[in-house]
Amino acid sequence: MTTSGNNGNAENNGYVRQLSSFTRELDKVSEGLFSLTTNGGDEYCGYAIKTAVNDLQWSSSDNNIKTIFIAGNEPFTQGPVNYQHAIELAKKRGISVNTIHAGDHQEGISSGWQSAALLTGGNYMSIDSNIQVVHIDAPQDKEIAELNAKLNETYIPYGDRGAKNKERQIEQDENSSTISAALMSKRALAKSSSFYNNKSWDLVDAMEEGEVDEAALADMDQASLPEPMKNMSPQEKKDYVIAKSEQRKDIQQQITDLSKSRDSFVAEKQREQVAAAPSMSDALTGAIRKQAEQKNFVFDT
Question: What pTM does this model have?
Answer without folding.
Answer: 0.75
